[in-house]
Amino acid sequence: MTAPAPTPTKWDDLTVRLISSAAMVAVGAVGVILGGIWFQMLVVFVTAVMVWELWMMIRPNEPTKGMLLAALVASVMSGQLVDGTAWGMLLFLVVPVIGVTQLKTEIKTFFVFALGIQLAGWGLVHFRMDHGFTWILWLMSVVIVTDIFGYFAGKALGGPKFWPKISPKKTWSGTAAGWIGAALVGYIFTLFTEAGLWIVAISVILSFAGQMGDIAESALKRRMGVKDSSTLIPGHGGLFDRFDALLGASLFLIVVADVIDVPGVVF
User: Which of 86, 119, 238, 245 is most exposed, with minimal Cβ within 10 Å?
Assistant: First the structure.
């Protein structure tokens, strides 16, 4: 008589997630610390792969076109990061426009997400170049801590869902815990930077922006009828699944760091 299969628990995926997370953190940390061309290459690679995943969610039977678009993303991103101009920003429209000419459905979906992914990648690199290691560390710390606090609080506390029609696993307890974690990160950075206490509030808003990036990708996956953007990362799905919050946070920072003058905050 065979023994009954073990009952699955809500923590079953924890070990795999931790191993994958540790590997990603290690690779990301090297790129962030070294900066320059190393960080640029890392961001270009991740950006290109996410556009490929986007295409494959919409057109899973046309991988070759997805790979060609990813290669074009890498070319455009590399050119802009080496010798970018204001007019050159229009090149970010190349892949979205070419992509939609190959589609009969989900035209707006591909255009908006492909453009947003590229702008977010460009914003990350320029934030690292313009404001240095300390502030890219802050940005990534807010996103990572938001995810960690949200994951454990959501699993442990449960409770009402944050947006059940789009992301049925996310709870208000996990969402609020993410804000608390982000506030703690912001406060820690006030201790050794000149940012001032406003950075605590900005950290919470940044956390929310990251969560909205996560929600946007969840809505995309539900629309496409897929569980994950791909299967590249064990326990996490694809790069788009892992970096969706970072995309939302990066797009938010493009506005805050370059457009809005927040009193007492010095990036």
Answer: 86
Find all residues with CB under 8 Å of 161, minimum gap 6, and list them: 167, 168, 170, 171, 172
Rounded to whole angstroms, the Cα distance separating 115 from 106 reads 14
Over 50: is that where the pLDDT of 1 sits? Answer: no
Quote the radius of gyration of the chain (alpha carbons, Å): 19
Report the alpha-carbon distance of residue 198 to residue 14 in Å, rounded.
34
Supply φ then ψ for residue 166, to 5 degrees.
-105, -45
Domain boundaries, the chain: 15-258
pTM of the model: 0.87
C-alpha 242/C-alpha 4 separation (Å) is 34
The model's pLDDT over 130-184, given as tens digits with 9 standing for 90+, comes to 888 999 999 999 999 999 999 888 888 878 888 888 877 788 898 999 999 999 9
Mean pLDDT of 213-230: 91
**Rounded mean pLDDT, 63-72:** 95
**CB neighbourhood size of 57 (10 A):** 25
Rounded-to-integer distance, Cα 180 and Cα 177, Å: 5
How high does pLDDT run on average in the chain? 86
Distance CA 159, CA 168 (A): 12
What's the rounded Cα separation, in Å, for the pair 39 and 32? 6
d(CA 96, CA 69): 9
Q: Half-sphere exposure (CA, 13 Å, Cβ side) for 180? A: 12
Residue 140 confidence (pLDDT): 92
